[in-house]
Specification:
Largest sheet: 5 strands, mixed
Shape: globular
Order of helices and strands: EEEEEHEEEHE
CATH superfamily: Nucleoside Triphosphate Pyrophosphohydrolase
Distance between the termini: 22 Å
Structural class: alpha+beta
Helix content: 10-25%
Number of strands: 9
Strand order of the largest sheet: 5-1-7-6-9
Number of helices: 2
Oligomer: single chain
Length: 141
């Protein structure tokens, strides 16, 4: 029996005045709207990874104490399993600017009630459950 590889990821939900911050991927990366975040490396904890990713991808500075776990996604795709921890930032510093130009072409605020059509299925799934107050969801990809 093959051993299942489990990948741990962390994502960030940044909301302000009825808007949510989304990254727009380059066409090479899929061209979808997504949330800030990425893989938690072996040498770091989830909050540390998210602080690093937030600065790299959007220029936002976030303190560890300002990150609050709001949702956990258990996602299966073929033989891979992902656990994705979604944190909400209660405070941040800086003005969002797109980082990592090979991955992202834009970072912008979008009305929570009118999210862009080109959003990834995973982000749409998580935001639906998060807005309902659900702290956990599962997804087959």
């Amino acid at each position: 029996m093959a051993k299942t590889k489990i990948l741990l990821k962390a994502r960030l939900i940044v909301e302000d005045q009825g808007k949510i911050l989304l990254l727009k991927q380059t066409s090479v990366q899929g061209g979808k709207y997504t949330l800030i975040g990425g893989t938690v490396e072996d040498y770091e904890f989830a909050k540390k990874a998210l602080i690093r990713e937030s600065f790299e991808e959007s220029g936002l500075l976030i303190a560890k104490q300002d990150l609050h776990l709001v949702h956990t996604l258990h996602k299966k795709k073929n033989e891979a399993t992902r656990i994705v921890l979604y944190f909400k930032a209660s405070r941040w510093e800086g003005t969002p600017i797109p980082g990592e130009p090979l991955k992202f072409m834009n970072v912008a605020w979008h009305p929570v009630e009118n999210l862009p059509k080109g959003m990834s299925a995973t982000v749409r799934h998580v935001l639906k459950h998060y807005r309902r107050g659900s702290r956990y969801s599962e997804m087959l990809a």
